Amino acid sequence: MDEKLEKIKQQLHSQNYKLTPQREATVRVLLEHEEDHLSAEDVYLLVKDKAPEIGLATVYRTLELLSELKIIHKMNFGDGVARYDLRDDNSEYHHHHLICNNCGTVDEIFEDLLVSAEEKVKNVYNFYITDHRLVFYGICSRCIDKVNVDDFK
């Protein structure tokens, strides 16, 4: 985690920002919960444990800054709540998600499923793609045997 924190610190410095104690507390929460898709409120409640003096507005500003600097992704899964995810330095694009309509679980797909679609968009429409997102909604493997899938059609 310290290596990732140091890299984020360098990214901030390269854009003339400092890793303030409040920003560091926010980044540490994101690093500790990398597999979760935390909302700003979730981040705030977790940061508050580490830095009781921090305010919700500070967390929002920090998340917006990190998003603008492309250190994190800001996502919306259709529920009206912005969620945040650390960018993967080893991936050219953002990873994809599977969202269960029954339990609400969000699972991740790390392989790029859109390579051929991107090629077609590039060649047929002469469109340069800078990023993409793919979200599948359905019933997860944990719920599939517990529900009638016809109820979700």
From TrEMBL:
Bilayer-crossing regions: none
Pfam families from the UniProt entry: FUR
InterPro entries with a match to the protein in the record: FUR, Fur_C, WH-like_DNA-bd_sf, WH_DNA-bd_sf
Domain of life: Bacteria
CDD domains, per database record: Fur_like
UniProt keyword list: DNA-binding, Repressor, Transcription, Transcription regulation, Zinc
Lipoprotein among keywords: no
Family, similarity comment: Belongs to the Fur family.
Protein name per UniProt: Transcriptional repressor
Originating organism: Brevibacillus ruminantium
Lineage: Bacteria, Bacillati, Bacillota, Bacilli, Bacillales
